[in-house]
């Protein structure tokens, strides 16, 4: 006999992305007997009740992240849809060989969900920082990548990833915009037009939106928002960046919360048939060895509103404001 479990959404939205992820993953475990969650101690306390109800599909392998990915690969090959979760550098960088071989090479499919982003926990030092995670996954074919900018965007993006046929990476962060964006809340994967202007397209990814809006205040630019960057909505990039003509290039400013330039290749390929310029902003390649705070790291990488404004003004040939 099967029992249908009725799920009631919480009256108050989670205030952080990790909680939103755990709550949604737990509902997926209840709803779909093919869903599984594999942990490596990180966030295990958020899955205590799920592990009690679904002990065979909520697995904690301990501090063994490569094993976690290998287990996820095995679960996938057995017909399950696994979600593997840990800190970004442990999930992607430390376990990359297993992602490449036990997922990609074996044609296994999993949803990888990270926390920590580029430098959310600066006090943890370089071991807990991963600005190169999306660029590293770009070396493998077929990975979808979602970068929510608000906790309310997480449930639909996770559900979309789990329902998909391929592997996906969801990059959670402690940083958040003040409000969720409609296209991300529905999980549609499209670029959301936040503000229309007559000049360049400034494309903010995930939690960079609020800083971009502050940095571009008063500028005649279009601000777009993307929570799904693989695949990137290149049709919208072409439309919003303008036709581009000799002497009047289409200008695109990419603002990503990970390694600068990660998505520049895609934009340049999409606009290859028209004159265009691309400015790629993000985390720099110089290692910041002082702990500080995430906000202080933003300043070093010029990802704070003032630093972004300087970069955009310089790119557009404007004087300092």
UniProtKB/TrEMBL annotation:
<dbReference type="InterPro" id="IPR051157">
    <property type="entry name" value="PDH/Transketolase"/>
</dbReference>
<feature type="domain" description="Transketolase-like pyrimidine-binding">
    <location>
        <begin position="15"/>
        <end position="180"/>
    </location>
</feature>
<dbReference type="InterPro" id="IPR009014">
    <property type="entry name" value="Transketo_C/PFOR_II"/>
</dbReference>
<dbReference type="GO" id="GO:0000287">
    <property type="term" value="F:magnesium ion binding"/>
</dbReference>
<protein>
    <submittedName>
        <fullName>Transketolase</fullName>
    </submittedName>
</protein>
<dbReference type="InterPro" id="IPR029061">
    <property type="entry name" value="THDP-binding"/>
</dbReference>
<dbReference type="Pfam" id="PF02779">
    <property type="entry name" value="Transket_pyr"/>
</dbReference>
<dbReference type="InterPro" id="IPR005475">
    <property type="entry name" value="Transketolase-like_Pyr-bd"/>
</dbReference>
């Amino acid at each position: 006999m099967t029992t249908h479990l009725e799920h009631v959404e919480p009256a108050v939205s989670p205030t952080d992305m990790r909680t939103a992820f755990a709550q949604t993953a737990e509902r997926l475990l209840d709803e779909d007997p093919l869903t599984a969650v594999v942990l490596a101690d990180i966030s295990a306390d958020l899955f205590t009740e799920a592990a009690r109800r679904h002990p065979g599909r909520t697995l904690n392998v301990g501090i063994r992240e490569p094993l976690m990915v290998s287990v996820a690969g095995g679960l996938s090959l057995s017909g399950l849809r696994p979600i593997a979760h840990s800190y970004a550098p442990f999930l992607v960088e430390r376990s990359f060989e297993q992602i490449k071989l036990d997922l990609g090479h074996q044609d296994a499919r999993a949803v990888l969900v990270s926390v920590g982003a580029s430098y959310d926990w600066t006090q943890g030092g370089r071991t807990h920082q991963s600005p190169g995670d999306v660029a590293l996954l770009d070396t493998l074919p077929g990975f979808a990548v979602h970068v929510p900018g608000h906790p309310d965007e997480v449930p639909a993006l996770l559900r979309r990833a789990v329902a998909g046929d391929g592997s996906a990476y969801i990059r959670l962060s402690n940083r958040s915009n003040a409000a969720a964006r409609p296209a991300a809340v529905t999980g549609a994967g499209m670029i959301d037009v936040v503000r229309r202007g007559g000049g360049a397209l400034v494309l903010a990814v995930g939690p960079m939106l609020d800083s971009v809006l502050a940095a571009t205040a008063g500028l005649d630019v279009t601000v777009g928002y993307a929570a799904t960057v693989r695949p990137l909505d290149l049709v919208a990039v072409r439309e919003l960046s303008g036709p581009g003509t000799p002497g009047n290039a289409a200008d695109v400013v990419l603002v990503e919360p990970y390694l600068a330039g990660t998505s520049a290749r895609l934009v340049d390929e999409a606009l290859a048939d028209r004159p265009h310029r691309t400015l790629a902003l993000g985390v720099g390649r110089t290692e910041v060895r002082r702990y500080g705070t995430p906000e202080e790291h933003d300043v070093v990488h010029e990802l704070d509103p003032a630093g972004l404004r300087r970069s955009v003004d310089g790119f557009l040939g404007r004087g300092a404001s």
